[in-house]
């Protein structure tokens, strides 16, 4: 392990790092796969990659472990996810603060493959692929870019401070033409946490049932596990249709939208099988320091710990139970939202179908009971399909926001 920090002379850091970077970037297997997938001989400049998009006006809407996300301000714009990349050799052997916010090319390649496969579930079904689900973002394009961020992507000083991102954007960062994977996707709406406090209680049931159905289809079609479904990765997209419609083999499945379509984002940690190829990220290093006392962990960390026990270091294998662990987390958040903590008079919810309307206080009480029932169900089931079948059989769980099968 080579450790370089601010006490090391700046010129020595630059010289050593740049030499290694130029040596190993050409050998990186993940980078070769990305270039082949994007049909590129080499990475391209940001402006060249994005010249077909309107770049006037971007909002920085989020920072993840290895990425920044920007929203195009125009109506019905796009989301741009920028993933910071470095060769695997360097990330495993050199310690510099700035490198903590970068990821391997091979992990970014897996993320794009998984996101693209989920995107195709939005398309019309075929004889060979009888599945339809609109719960995952439509991916428009991917690019491998080099060089400094364009002005329209650079964070303001206030954003840098609030995001604690000085290690990413400061002048100390090494003078290389670092590469980024840019994923362009549809705008999937608002984070669930920004909507649920003022939503009608039936919206909350629709959210859970949409996730169960979407995961059931993705598990069946692609052996998919999300593995990181915290509340920031559950978005709600406005929906004018009364019902969300899915297809699983010859079954058409409908669930009331109540004005929102669930969109699940961020496949950074996800696992999937596409034909005979398995894509996954080894997450063993993330769980090395968890306490044995589960009560000391926050709910989100408890989910990671439970997931790691289910997987038991075999991150390549398929464990659909992990999706249910994360659905329990979503239910946990819904049960604690303000929409279920106070009573309101009035009736109705956005959209319709399946038991909307009625006294708000009665709806709140009923929804709490159903959410608690769904929460208990997650412990009993092994995958989303068994959970779905149990909901269909149990009138008490399917009376509100009723799932309909044709």
From TrEMBL:
It catalyses: L-threonyl-[protein] + ATP = O-phospho-L-threonyl-[protein] + ADP + H(+); L-seryl-[protein] + ATP = O-phospho-L-seryl-[protein] + ADP + H(+). GO terms for molecular function: ATP binding; histone H3T3 kinase activity. Residues 295-398 form the Serine/threonine-protein kinase haspin C-terminal domain. The keyword Nucleotide-binding applies. GO terms for cellular component: cytoplasm; nucleus. Keywords: ATP-binding, Kinase, Nucleotide-binding, Serine/threonine-protein kinase, Transferase. Gene3D superfamilies: Phosphorylase Kinase, domain 1 (3.30.200.20), Transferase(Phosphotransferase) domain 1 (1.10.510.10). PANTHER family: INTERLEUKIN-1 RECEPTOR-ASSOCIATED KINASE (PTHR24419), SERINE_THREONINE-PROTEIN KINASE HASPIN (PTHR24419:SF18). This is non-specific serine/threonine protein kinase. It comes from Blomia tropicalis.
């Amino acid at each position: 392990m080579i450790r370089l920090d601010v006490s090391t002379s700046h010129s020595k850091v630059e010289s050593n790092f740049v030499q290694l970077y130029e040596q190993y970037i050409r050998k990186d297997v993940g980078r070769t796969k990305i270039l082949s997938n994007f049909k590129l001989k080499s990475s391209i400049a940001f402006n060249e990659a994005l010249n077909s998009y309107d770049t006037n006006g971007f909002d920085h809407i989020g920072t993840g472990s290895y990425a920044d996300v920007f929203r195009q301000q125009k109506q019905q714009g796009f989301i741009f996810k920028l993933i910071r990349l470095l060769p695997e050799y360097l990330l495993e052997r050199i310690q510099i603060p700035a490198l903590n916010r970068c990821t391997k090319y091979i992990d970014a390649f897996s993320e794009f493959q998984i996101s693209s496969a989920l995107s195709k579930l939005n398309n019309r079904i075929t004889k060979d692929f009888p599945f339809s689900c609109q719960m995952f973002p439509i991916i428009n394009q991917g690019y491998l870019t080099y060089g400094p961020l364009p002005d329209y992507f650079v964070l303001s000083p206030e954003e840098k401070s609030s995001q604690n991102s000085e290690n990413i954007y400061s002048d100390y960062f090494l003078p290389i033409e670092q590469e980024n994977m840019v994923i362009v996707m549809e705008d999937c709406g608002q984070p669930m946490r920004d909507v649920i406090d003022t939503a009608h209680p039936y919206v909350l049931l629709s959210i859970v049932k949409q996730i169960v159905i979407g995961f059931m289809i993705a598990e069946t079609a692609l052996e998919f596990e999300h593995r990181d479904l915290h509340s920031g990765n559950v978005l709600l997209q406005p929906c004018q249709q009364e019902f969300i419609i899915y297809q699983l083999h010859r079954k058409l499945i409908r669930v009331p939208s109540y004005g929102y379509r669930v969109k699940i984002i961020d496949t950074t940690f996800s696992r999937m099988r596409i034909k005979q190829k398995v894509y996954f990220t080894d997450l063993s290093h993330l769980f090395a320091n968890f306490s044995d006392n589960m009560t000391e962990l926050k709910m989100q960390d408890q989910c990671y710990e439970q997931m790691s026990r289910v997987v038991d270091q075999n991150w390549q294998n398929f464990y659909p139970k992990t999706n249910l662990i994360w659905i329990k987390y979503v239910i946990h958040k819904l049960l604690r939202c303000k929409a279920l903590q106070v009573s309101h008079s009035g009736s109705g919810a956005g959209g319709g179908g399946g038991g909307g309307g009625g006294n708000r206080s009665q709806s709140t009480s009923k929804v709490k009971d159903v959410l608690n029932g769904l929460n208990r169900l997650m412990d009993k089931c092994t995958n989303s399909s068994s959970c779905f079948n149990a909901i269909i059989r149990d009138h008490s769980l399917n009376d509100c926001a009723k799932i309909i099968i044709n």
